[in-house]
Amino acid sequence: xxxxxxxxxxxxxxxxxxxxxxxxxxxxxxxxxxxxxxxxxxxxxxxxxxxxxxxxxxxxxxxxxxxxxxxxxxxxxxxxxxxxxxxxxxxxxxxxxxxxxxxxxxxxxxxxxxxxxxxxxxxxxxxxxxxxxxxxxxxxxxxxxxxxxxxxxxxxxxxxxxxxxxxxxxxxxxxxxxxxxxxxxxxxxxxxxxxxxxxxxxxxxxxxxxxxxxxxxxxxxxxx
Length: 224
Prior knowledge:
The strands form 3 sheets. The chain has a 6-stranded mixed sheet with strand order 6-8-7-10-5-9. It is α/β, with parallel strands linked by helices. It has helices spanning 9-13, 57-67, 77-87, 132-135, 147-153, 195-199, and strands at residues 2-4, 17-19, 28-31, 37-40, 112-118, 143-145, 160-164, 169-176, 183-187, 206-211. The chain is elongated and about 65 Å long.
């Protein structure tokens, strides 16, 4: 079973898919980085919606429990919050400290760089499907390196930079940016299938960088 907003690779594998409201359409609770509970209310009210409001996650849980003849007694958010308050904070054993040790940082040579990057707020995410106006406000995808790194790699601002990973290449227009040398920054899900899929690398990996090869200059396959 899957609780979803849009069809995805997950819903293709699920036996049952139940729609739920988006974060802006429902009240709920976040835990901040300190572990503190932070409540929030719905930004979009039912009378502001142009379609029928989907149920919240808590309401779906309640409906499933009722169908299984297990009555939780949590009909609304206020009751849910009261139940959480009654239970109180966790006072049992905590998880052990991480056992992994820090790996040695990669040391890129000339023509190499350490990959950095993150997903842009507006990228190829599924929540923009069907909203061409919102998708049209995406920032253009660019690769970023320092001026010294660009000079070393034989590229300049505006050139197409090729970033080669373990299983493929990502090519993006370059923006020379004030940043650490021998580091290349990429938007992780703005072009193609995403950096992880297309190049087979994640942030922190060592990649090769250089000017993209024009299609006309690319080596041609010769039939045997």
